[in-house]
Amino acid sequence: MISAASLNFSSMMCYSILGPFFPQEAVKKGVSDTMIGFIFGSFALCNFLSSLILGKYLVQIGAQFMFVAGLAISGVATILFGLLDKVTDRTIFITLCLLVRCVDAVGFGASTTASFSIMAKTFPNNLATVFGSLEIFTGLGLVLGPPVGGILYETFGYEVPFITIGSLILLMVPLNIFALPKYDDLPRENSFLALVKLPKVIILCFTIYSLGASLAFLDPTMSLFLIETFNLNASYVGLVFLGLALSYSLSSPLLGVVSDRLPEWRQRFLIYGNLGTALCFFMLGPAPIFHIESKLWLFIFVLVLDGFCIGLSGMPIYPEMLTAA
């Protein structure tokens, strides 16, 4: 639990720290909004692809080694990302951003794959409760990342937020070497294609994709929208990010417990959570069809509601996926 919690916290803090200020820095170097989206999206893409490959060879590599090595790679990559502001050429800057983000994603993909396997092995009957509890640390990472990143950026400049978080991740490497249990009997090598052909797994995978996309859409765009619409600086933008992360982290443990104790409610959670998330996205702008003026308080309220809806639809996924497998 300690190892998984440290991973969730550090990975989400590293992921979310870019939101308040990186789009502005990239725009200063002549990077388009579309390319900024690609830089953010490259993390998720490489994380997805590397997880498929690393999951296949998890047993041969070893869960503990994969977990620790992934953290070390991510820590170094995060620090390197903080040095990219020294690059003046636009093309080289974009190339290095994509490369470092991909390496960072591979590192966290390795750690996350190993973590999921160990959690499934250790807590097979209470998976939603365990993952719901771990989402507290995911939420803490999402909560602290934007405001801490924004404050450090405003105070010390571009490099310090990444060097600070990267150093924190590297400090967690020796902690996990001693805290992480060793398992000889980890999940067997089953066919991935056979698994994803199951209708239930296809629906759950689509749900995971939709929830991930709902978060990823906000990273390259929300800070620019808040700055242009409400004239907020990076520090306040980071605080606005709290609405989504805080509601998600506080609601997930409770929803995880309910999902484990009342498994017949899981389908309802998935349906209502996804519908609520979709409605929240219509209201974030808000959409022109509503003819509502953009207000900061409304934006924050919708973010809070969105975080709860994401938790509502996300918590049943873990036990349902394990049952289907």
Using the alpha-carbon principal axes, give the shape: globular
Which blocks of ≥5 consecutive residues have pLDDT under 50?
A: none
Mean pLDDT: 78
Through-space gap between termini: 23 Å
Q: Treating each run of at least 4 consecutive H or I residues as one helix, how many helices?
A: 16
The major sheet is characterized as: none
How many strands in all? Answer: 0
The computed structural class is mainly alpha
Please report which band the strand proportion falls in: under 5%, 5-15%, 15-25%, 25-35%, 35-45% or over 45%. Answer: under 5%
The helix-strand sequence is: HHHHHHHHHHHHHHHH
**How large is the radius of gyration?**
19 Å
**Helix share, percent:** over 70%
Describe this structure in words.
This protein is mainly α and 325 residues long. Helix content is 81%, strand content 0%. It is built from 16 helices and no strands. The protein has helices at residues 2-16, 22-28, 33-56, 58-61, 63-81, 90-122, 127-156, 159-179, 192-196, 199-216, 218-230, 234-240, 242-261, 266-284, 296-314, 317-324. 44% of the residues are buried. The mean pLDDT is 78.
